[in-house]
Design brief:
alpha+beta; MraZ_sf; Chemotaxis protein chec; six-stranded antiparallel sheet; transcription; 5 helices; cell cycle; two-stranded antiparallel ribbon
């Protein structure tokens, strides 16, 4: 299974192109990406196409869609972009995704295991700092609960 790990920052050029970091390109092995707005954070999720396709639930035309099915289809399937980085690993980011993630001069790529995220660099650092603090608070609470 492909694992995207680490954090890398690359420049965003005037044509809205950014290079996928070499370690991430190596893990993609030429596979295309599915880009989508994160529904939880001000960033873009980048999924290897095969992982995204495998996660999509098969729907029978005989099934009547529920409201949840509609929400998933509209938010997670209709509002995505299939993209193939060029031979140099560059991809062009569309304006709506740039705006969603507040990207202008640089992009921070953060590994999330099966996929990676594209963040505005300062927002990425703030997200990591907040996550570290949450983990430290959990560790403190656990230690206090065990009487250590």
């Amino acid at each position: 299974m492909t694992q995207f790990r680490g954090k890398f920052t690359n420049k965003l050029d005037a044509k809205a192109r950014v290079s996928v970091p070499a370690p991430f390109r190596a893990r993609l092995a030429g596979e295309g990406l599915v880009l989508r707005r994160s529904t939880r954070h001000p960033c873009i999720e980048a999924w290897p196409a095969s992982h995204f396709d495998a996660a999509a639930r098969a729907v029978s035309p005989l099934d009547e869609p529920t409201e949840e099915d509609d929400a998933i289809a509209y938010a997670l399937l209709a509002d995505v972009l299939d993209i193939a980085p060029d031979p140099e690993g560059r991809m062009v980011l569309p304006r709506d995704l740039l705006d969603h993630a507040s990207l202008s001069a640089a992009v921070t790529f953060m590994g999330r295991g099966e996929y990676f995220e594209l963040w505005e660099p300062d927002a990425a650092e703030a997200q990591i700092a907040a996550a570290r603090e949450r983990m430290a608070a959990r560790a403190r609470a656990k230690a206090e609960g065990s009487g250590a």
